[in-house]
Design brief:
The structure is a homodimer.
Chain A (H helix, E strand, L loop, with lengths): L5 H10 L3 H12 L3 E3 H7 L4 H13 L3 E6 L2 E6 L1 H14 L6
Antiparallel strand pairs in A: 1-3, 2-3
The structure holds a DNA duplex.
Chain lengths: 98, 98
DNA sequence: TTTATGCATTGAAATATTTAAATGTTTTGT
DNA sequence: ACAAAACATTTAAATATTTCAATGCATAAA
């Protein structure tokens, strides 16, 4: 597994540091690991540009992956990035690496 | 292990979303899992109140634990919080919980 | 008891983030 | 081709964060 550096970890952390973005991730989880952008409008009480903005933060860090399907975009979780981020966090822990 | 909710995860993420705060954590790691506040002044090019502010963010989320020793404060990593946060992240992953 | 050291708090400026109205782009349906 | 649907971008306002000078407070040293 590739090693994530502090700069990347900072960006992932920032992407995860907003209630709307965590809500988006939990919606993806709830809908069995993928959803269309439009699915979020029902569950998130924000204007479309705001949701779009949050999706951008999550896709720019590759936490979720966009897949174009005609007019829609299908978003899925990217386990690899989560795992690399977890690896970074493990490395911070006390007594880790003795 | 206690389960972390989204609100807590948001706060942890926010605490981890700053280069200075990640630097503080890596300094703690480098110094064999603990250091005094004063140890940071050499390695971080910010004024004392700024470093104090960042330490506060990290202690308020319990990512690091402060221990008073006379005039000094000794900071150590809190593995429990990191582990709970990692648990939250694992729960977000695709195909997790089938 | 003064003086110095280590850390916290306050207040304010600079910067970044969040939000949405208006508008643009791409694709689908008629 | 035209209209509608799905998502993106621009712009700007509201809010939050970062930073530091000045100051405060508690502990230790002289």
């Amino acid at each position: 597994m590739a090693q994530m550096d502090a700069k990347q970890a900072e960006k992932i952390s920032k992407a995860l540091s907003d209630p709307t973005r965590l809500k988006i991730l939990s919606e993806i989880k709830k809908k069995n690991d993928w959803l269309y952008c439009v699915d979020l409008y029902d569950n998130i009480n924000l204007a479309q540009p705001s949701i779009c903005h949050h999706l951008k933060q999550l896709t720019e860090t590759s936490i979720i992956l966009p897949e174009k399907e005609g007019r829609n975009i299908k978003y899925t979780m990217n386990n690899d990035v989560i795992d690399e981020y977890i690896g970074f966090l493990q490395g911070l822990k006390k007594d880790c690496g003795l």
